[in-house]
Amino acid sequence: MGSFDLMLGVIALLIVVGGFIYTYRVGRRSNSSQGGEMDSVISEKVQDHYVLRNPIFLAYLVAAVLILIFIGYAALSL
After folding, report:
1. Spatial separation of the C-alpha atoms in residues 13 and 65, rounded to whole Å
2. 3-class secondary structure per residue, 38-56
3. Total-model pTM
4. Confidence (pLDDT) at 65
5. C-alpha span between 68 and 26 (Å, rounded)
6. Is 76 left (phi over 0), alpha (psi -120 to 50) or beta?
7. Would you say residue 8 has pLDDT above 80?
8. CB atoms within 10 A of CB 38
């Protein structure tokens, strides 16, 4: 694995982590700033595990795992 591939992997990982943090902050801010009544009732399971039930966070998790698998495969295939 060349240094260019390693740099691209690190940059991709930083983008995924930065996107995850940004999405988490926006989600927390919009959740706390909502006033008034909600449109529908949210189930207790989703309220208890709002991060795990959010498809955006799951997409970030899958992307991070795939990037790590690719980096590991590229490192071991030398």
Report:
1. 10
2. CCCCCCHHHHHCCCCCCHH
3. 0.43
4. 92
5. 26
6. alpha
7. yes
8. 7
